[in-house]
Amino acid sequence: MTDELLPEARKSYRYQWYVVVVCMVAYVFSFVDRQILSLMIEPIKRDLNLTDTQFSLLNGLAFSLLYSFMGLPIALLADKRSRPLIISIGIAFWSMATALSGLSKGFAHMFLARIGVGVGEAALSPAAYSMFSDMFPKNKLGRAYGIYSLGSFIGGAAAFIIGGYVINLLKSVDAVALPLVGEVRAWQLTFLIVGLPGLLLALLVFLTVRDPGRRGLKHNSDGGVQKVALRNVFAFLWSHRRTFAMHYLGFSLYALVLLGMMAWTPAFYIRAFGLTSTEAGYLLGVVVLAANGSGVLFGGWLVDLLAKRGHSDAAMRAGVIGAVGMTVPVIAFTQVGNLWASLVLLAVAMFFASFPMPASTAAMQVLSPNQMRAQVSAVFLLISNLIGLALGTTLVALVTDRVFGDERMVGSSLSLVYGLASVVTVLLLWRGCGHFRRSLARERLHAEQREAVPAS
């Protein structure tokens, strides 16, 4: 008897967890390629003659611009075509774009390369989320999304640690001559080193991951599967507009805090405590790996625990708990004068800041019909990344450059922007819990009515 025919309690899920782990590794690679830039802020600013605001555009807007908007057409494909193929093409594309970042000679070149990284990475999460919802029952989705989301923090930690190691290794090297490429700086070589191995991972996904059968599809009266256009997705979102407004805006501001801290904490510790890039990379790598890694797993476990206890709004409720927990430490970690006290507060903030990754995803997948799950996720990622990456990183830079006029005041900018965002996040997600419960009840009633029609 195959696993597909076994009762739920006896099913092994070995292959399904393998797919989750492979996708998690892809997420690791994506965050290394995305995050490595923030550690090399000072040499890149120096060699390309950039301000904090220009650097924030590379770190935020350039990446998020097409990462956000390409998510929708790619998600439309993911709801209809082979999801592993889409993922493998995306991995190959962003890996090449990361390597090309290492060949940048100016702001415009780097901006275009970062756009390419965003386009490739847009293929991963909507397709992966959609596959997981077809491979696991609802009481395992929180853990599946939690393990997958862990890849972002392993990747963030690896970017800091590997970046710090490479920078230290090449600290006495001003430039390196490469065949066919010519002379490159140490930071440019770092991009080449972290980008090219992704091509092997793309091949692994293509060869070993198969597209799971789609569950819960809606059918026409003739038995055929209903086709879902983008207008149907927006109609569904509009029918639950209060729920998705609270979800999308609340978790987007949550992302603003998390992604902003990932982007700006290296600069803060380098400027405020006089750390080298290598020292900052090692310390922040440990914090991200321990605090964010445990936080995202705990967040996924908390979603499943609350669901087992009968809370239909479990995912939203977990988000509220995390947002409350991060508010005070996210304000305080930049305002203490002791390095170790600051790092402890940062670790607490990062632990709670990682809750929304499994929580926001589980909420969308539980509520959305199968044919539009990837597209609903892509709309969220569009809003979340425009707010979290483009707006969040740039707001801190603008406050630093225009309000304080001193790059050493980046810590105060972090406290001001992310402290306010944390408070608003709590309010939005708390309001969203009630809306989510009502939306879920409505969708369940509609499903029961559809199932009752043939029998009448």
Helix/strand order, N-terminal first:
HHHHHHHEEHHHHHHHHHH
Q: Tell me, what is the CATH class? A: Mainly Alpha
Give the strand order, joined by hyphens, for the main sheet.
Answer: 1-2
| Helicity range | over 70%
Radius of gyration over all CA atoms, rounded:
22 Å
What profile does the largest beta sheet have?
Answer: 2 strands, antiparallel
Number of strands: 2
Number of helices: 17
- Average pLDDT, all residues: 82
Distance between the termini: 34 Å
Q: Note the beta-strand portion.
A: under 5%
Low-confidence stretches: 219-225
Would you identify the CATH H-level superfamily? MFS general substrate transporter like domains
Principal-axis shape:
globular
CATH topology: Growth Hormone, Chain: A
Please tell me the total number of domains. Answer: 1
Per CATH, the architecture is Up-down Bundle
Alpha-beta content class: mainly alpha
Keywords: Membrane, Transmembrane, Transmembrane helix, Transport
GO molecular function: transmembrane transporter activity
Subcellular location: Cell membrane
Membrane topology: Multi-pass membrane protein
